[in-house]
Amino acid sequence: MEKIASFLSSLLAAGGGDSGGPAATVTSVFVYPIKSCRGISVPQAPITATGFKWDRQWMVVNSEGRGRTQRVEPKLALIQVELPPEAFAEDWQPTPDDHMVIRAPGMEPLKIPLASECATIYDVSVWEWSGSAYDEGPEAAEWFSTFFGNPTRLVRFKEESETRLTDPDYARGYKTMFSDGFPFLITSQGSLDALNEILKEPIPINRFRPNILVEGCHPYAEDLWKTIRINKLTFQGVKLCSRCKITSEGWS
């Protein structure tokens, strides 16, 4: 795993760069180990070449190997994921005793070893990308198939041999795992508050699934940011998120 920076703390000053408004502050960092399942709020997260460590490293696929998302399978939003707290420490490596724990209503907890050899399956796909991935095995397949009521498997991105590049029209030379398009997604509390003012029922930030939440800037200011500096790190804004354009922006 390529390390390009150390920690991103939850209370670091952020620079809005081109917006001309007040500087924002990072208030939350979120990691989503399984694509489209619930995220984990963490105080810090190591950064890798594909985004935060563990982010969208796993994906639920159907019988044809096609990735499932909440767009077509909303029950994914009910699945909770837990990782050992120490998994977000820099340079931490799992042992055979370390697991990812998966929970869902009406299901017994499922433990996925973080340090075990897995078989490779081919013809796994998400959006425009296809390739091979590690299969987390029959126990995981049975658990997810029972929960969804149809054949389903859990796969893990195969970093050793696979590369999934970001859209070169926006961020040439960057890569990600199973996220929709880019390594990071950022939004602001101000944007969420402004949106909730016009909704009949307020919605929480997890509906937008950001990696980084900031506050202290004007609503939608992040839509205009070209650069953002967090501690000694610099991120480049590349495009608005196609899923939630009015409140979030993708970052490379």
Automatic annotation (TrEMBL):
<dbReference type="InterPro" id="IPR011037">
    <property type="entry name" value="Pyrv_Knase-like_insert_dom_sf"/>
</dbReference>
<dbReference type="InterPro" id="IPR005303">
    <property type="entry name" value="MOCOS_middle"/>
</dbReference>
<dbReference type="Pfam" id="PF03473">
    <property type="entry name" value="MOSC"/>
</dbReference>
<dbReference type="GO" id="GO:0032787">
    <property type="term" value="P:monocarboxylic acid metabolic process"/>
</dbReference>
<dbReference type="Pfam" id="PF03476">
    <property type="entry name" value="MOSC_N"/>
</dbReference>
<protein>
    <recommendedName>
        <fullName>MOSC domain-containing protein</fullName>
    </recommendedName>
</protein>
<feature type="domain" description="MOSC">
    <location>
        <begin position="152"/>
        <end position="252"/>
    </location>
</feature>
<dbReference type="InterPro" id="IPR005302">
    <property type="entry name" value="MoCF_Sase_C"/>
</dbReference>
